[in-house]
Design brief:
The complex is a heterodimer. Chain A is α+β, with helices and mostly antiparallel strands. In chain A, the strands form two sheets. Chain A has a four-stranded antiparallel β-sheet, covered by helices on one side. Chain A starts with a helix and ends with a strand. The longest helix of chain B is centred in the middle third of the chain and has 25 residues. In chain B, helix 3 packs parallel to helix 9, helix 5 packs antiparallel against helix 6 and helix 12 packs antiparallel against helix 13. By secondary structure, chain B is mainly alpha-helical. Chain B has a two-stranded antiparallel ribbon with strand order 1-4. Classes of the chains: A alpha+beta, B mainly alpha.
Chain lengths: 152, 299
């Protein structure tokens, strides 16, 4: 009977723990992250779970397409739970400037936010991934896109 | 004993699997009141296209940033919205009213906000996405609080949550209508602003939508086999034809990097576009957008 109880406990742990690993950041974190943009107006968020990296080659994370409008200045902000703030990066790229040679990233800019003045309307991409060599533990991360103003 | 064990583990697996919400393998797009044949489409492609579309607040933020005076007369009247009866009209209306709510939010018009929230709630109820529209909280924020940030944040996240739920529940057709409503209403407001006071910035916003209209149409054409979509898409195809007269020229240049007072890095790409159009052609585009929007609210 004891063996059965242990087996059930282990099975439950793996099933429910894997469910938790899929959890995105909570709404409160998204809101707090959006507020970091100062006067910029929140437009949308990119909320993702990041599974622990199992090998050097695995690329964890998510990418989202986003239409940006010419002449608008946007702000991109990245937030992750404490203890992970240096592990994750947000990257802005498009088909001409692929993810390996992006327009910008929080890693390149050296801060967890940067502004982008869009000079060509169209579809861009935002990705959130672990930085190279990081990601031993799973986490969540939130990216915020906000409107700073028209660049007239 | 083994049987008991298998039974218990099976129960755990069944309960655990109930919370899952992975991507669907295929999406069908039946409008519940429009029972034409369901379309089998690539879910990743259409979801990606829909997901990429601008937030309902973006055009309003742009208009407000340009110091254009507030005017409620160009918004969809809520009594008109109350007459939307098919799911097709309701989903379009949900997008349009969300864009209007964005407009009211950036201009901080609390009384009108409550009126529009009430109409949106009615549409959300009918489309069975009301659980993602936090009406009571939004209403409380609009009436009793000066926390405009929270109100705008919750309005926008509610819109995105409703849109996401529609896509997850294989109702991408309604989701496509929501983004159509947001885009059309946003551009309608831009056209009205430009008619009120012509300005190069506004003109370029409208003329610069050429590629966005192509993207929008590529989403809508997934549903071309539905009569209501076909009729609406024909109008957008006519609009796209008018955009043929607009030339978008890519010009190379050096990227610029600067820093704000708060040390935020600012990237300004050197590569930019020049939008070439004539006033006559832009007038035709504006008139077409206005006509499409007015047709859509009088369906």
């Amino acid at each position: 009977m004891k063996k059965i109880a242990i087996l059930i406990a282990i099975t439950s742990f793996f099933i429910f723990a894997s469910g938790e690993a899929q959890a995105q950041c909570k709404q409160q974190r998204v809101y707090q992250c959006a507020r970091k943009g100062g006067n910029a107006i929140y437009l949308r968020d990119f909320n993702t779970k990041l599974r622990a990296v199992r090998s050097e080659r695995s690329i964890n994370g998510t990418k989202w397409p986003v239409v940006l409008n010419r002449g608008t200045r946007y702000r991109f902000i990245l937030c992750s739970p404490s203890g992970h703030s240096n592990d994750v990066k947000l990257t802005l790229f498009d088909s001409k400037h692929p993810e390996m040679r992006p327009w910008n990233s929080t890693e390149k800019s050296g801060r967890n936010m940067f502004d982008f003045i869009c000079k060509r309307s169209g579809v861009y991409y935002v990705s959130i991934r672990f930085k190279q060599g990081k990601g031993r533990r799973k986490t969540c991360a939130v990216g915020i896109l906000s409107f700073v103003g028209k660049n007239q | 004993m083994i049987k008991k064990l298998i039974f218990i583990i099976s129960v755990i697996i069944v309960f655990a699997s109930c919370g899952g919400g992975g991507d669907d393998a295929t999406i069908t797009g039946p409008d519940t009141q429009d029972t034409s044949r369901a379309v089998q489409i690539d879910p990743a492609k259409i979801n990606g296209l829909i997901e990429s579309f601008p937030s309902p607040i973006e055009m309003a933020a742009t208009i407000e940033d340009m110091k254009v005076p507030y005017s409620k007369k160009h918004l969809v009247p809520t009594d008109v919205a109350n007459d939307f009866d098919s799911n097709f009209e309701k989903a379009l209306g949900l997008g349009m009213l969300s864009a209007d709510l964005g407009y009211l939010n950036v201009y901080n018009r609390k009384n009108a906000i409550v009126e529009y929230l009430t109409s949106i709630k009615r549409l959300a109820d009918a489309l069975d996405v009301d659980q993602f529209f936090e009406f009571q909280t939004l209403k409380r924020l609009a009436t009793n609080s000066n926390n405009l940030d929270s109100l705008m944040f919750l309005s926008v996240t509610s819109y995105h949550d409703m849109d996401e739920h529609l896509r997850k529940t294989r109702r991408s057709n309604l989701s496509a209508l929501m983004i159509t409503g947001v885009w059309t209403e946003g551009q309608y407001l831009a056209c009205k602003v430009n008619q009120f006071k012509r300005d190069t910035t506004t003109e370029e916003i409208i003329a610069g939508q050429k590629d966005i209209v192509k993207e929008l149409l590529s989403v809508l054409e997934f549903f071309d086999n539905k009569p209501k979509f076909k009729k609406m898409n024909d109008q957008f195809r006519e609009l796209l034809k008018l955009y043929d007269t607009v030339e978008i020229k890519v010009v190379e240049g050096e990227d610029k990097i600067s820093y704000t007072q708060d040390s935020i890095q600012v990237i300004e790409p050197g590569e930019h576009t020049e939008i070439i159009y004539t006033e006559e052609n832009l007038n035709k585009i504006e008139n077409k957008i206005i006509k499409i929007r007015n047709n859509l609210i009088s369906l």
